[in-house]
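[step 3/7] fold_predict: job queued, chain A
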Amino acid sequence: MADQNDTMQAVGETIKPVVPMKHIPHLIKSLYGLTVESCKELDSYDDRNYHVIVTGQSENPYIKHPEKDGYVLKIMNKMQSKNPLFVEALHTLMNHVAKNEISVPHIMKNIKGEDMSLEKIYHSENITDSTPFEFYIVRLFTYIPGETFSAIPIHPKSLYNIGKVLGNFHDAMKDFQHKFFESYTLLWSLTEVERVKDFFIGVQDENKKALVTEIIDAFNKEVAPKYHKLTKSIIHGDVNERNIIMKEIPGQKVASGEPRVYDVSALIDFNDAVSSYTALDVAICIAYMSIKCKEFDQRDVGGHVLAGYLSVRSMNDTEREVLKVCVCARLAQNLVMGAYTNYMNPSHVYVLNTAARGWPLLSMMWETPQNEIDARWNKIIKEYENL
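[step 4/7] structure written:
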């Protein structure tokens, strides 16, 4: 197993793979025996993900009939690529989730019959003796068609459906155990929120730094001492707007321009899975859904997500009490790391879209009294219960 320090990104360290696009068809052909027709890179913080469409021909005995919707080639960041045991644990988790009737991408075997391989990838198209390179874990998954949550207008019932699926996921995790997760953590785990202070170099505004520091102090005072009262489990850790595939519910009659209701088609990208607390996973989901919301007051998003979640499983009083602080802590964590990512590599402009909406949301959520947030969410939950 990799040293525990290898699972934590260091300040100043760039972990995202450097992969020229022209390498992708060769990787697909040499590793998976498939011929690429088209390739599009997908947004990702730390990894490289590509949606590839392939021809109907296969030289892979484990892929007899290539998928018409294509595949997602995932090249893992150099930090997690040092830890193949993590990937094995991740695949075990995904297979467990799939057996519990929650749709997830299917792992494809390469021509050697392996679920993953460690590949030497050069950082330039023109390879010479001096061309830099790195070793990365490469995997291929089925592509699940549909819209990511980021691409659809928000209807409150869609948020309810997301909360319901998250509850089903946590139920599925109740009987899941894997020894790897017992000692594993990572920078993006919400229990590690204190560490974002090390990445303040990307945040230029002193008021924003002060706000984040205040929220982290509150987390350490109001949440961390209560861990023993929270439900412990393996959590997804990154239920954001790009990791939820949605499908429109058919037969709806809505006015022109009004958002339609969508259901969850699949959960994807389990790379931030970690042993933690289910309440933190709920907070992470609420944080990301709130950033995305433009259709109504962002502070009400949590009520709709919670209503769906509570229709499946309960939360104790302590878990409900810590939610607001945890939501703000995740927003702070995401915004600081986004600023740091853009500071280190200004080409990662998509993180700035989150910043434009995220910082005002963080201020508004933090300044809204706890009892007002609770009242908003409880009112919405009650409305669903009375339907």
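[step 5/7] annotate
The chain is about 40% helix and 15% strand.
The longest strand covers residues 48-58.
exit 0
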